Amino acid sequence: MPRRFTYNIVVPVTPTPVGMVALLLAGRISFMKLKTFSEKKGNDWKMVYLARCEGTDTATITWKIDLQGTGLVADRMDIQALSTCYENGCIWWRICADEQCAVLPSDGRLTSVDNVSGSSVITISATLSQGQGNVSWQHTQLFRQSAQDVSNPFDVQIFLKSVKN
């Protein structure tokens, strides 16, 4: 039984990007946006994206999927996450389930993740760092897309199964 959540910076829909809590059956998906992130809208190129705040060296954003107490666990996940880096900017995506973590590609390719099987708590994180000069914060961008684009640069589909007694 698959469940999906997506994020589009142009057209935020439920779950909304700031402080979201949405139901995944009886479980929860929590979005933890740190103070070191801001939504950016470039009037010159008409692009929108999430970036770390000006003057910060690094920032991490995390989504947590909590299925505890639902009688369900993850079977597998399909994830698509689009990131853009300039100069020497670096974005490191990872997914953790229990004590196992895996690195995710940041180029928008759909990736199947099997190491989540049997897990009831999963986190998906992106850490933004590096860049050059006083605009280094601008060299790492999450979900960069045209201000008219309605596609979802972050798309997570989780396949669930019942807990075996």
Automatic annotation (TrEMBL):
<dbReference type="InterPro" id="IPR008979">
    <property type="entry name" value="Galactose-bd-like_sf"/>
</dbReference>
<dbReference type="GO" id="GO:0006516">
    <property type="term" value="P:glycoprotein catabolic process"/>
</dbReference>
<keyword id="KW-0472">Membrane</keyword>
<dbReference type="GO" id="GO:0005737">
    <property type="term" value="C:cytoplasm"/>
</dbReference>
<feature type="transmembrane region" description="Helical">
    <location>
        <begin position="6"/>
        <end position="26"/>
    </location>
</feature>
<dbReference type="InterPro" id="IPR038680">
    <property type="entry name" value="PAW_sf"/>
</dbReference>
<protein>
    <recommendedName>
        <fullName>PAW domain-containing protein</fullName>
    </recommendedName>
</protein>
<comment type="similarity">
    <text>Belongs to the transglutaminase-like superfamily. PNGase family.</text>
</comment>
<keyword id="KW-0812">Transmembrane</keyword>
<keyword id="KW-1133">Transmembrane helix</keyword>
<feature type="domain" description="PAW">
    <location>
        <begin position="1"/>
        <end position="163"/>
    </location>
</feature>
<dbReference type="Pfam" id="PF04721">
    <property type="entry name" value="PAW"/>
</dbReference>
<dbReference type="InterPro" id="IPR006588">
    <property type="entry name" value="Peptide_N_glycanase_PAW_dom"/>
</dbReference>
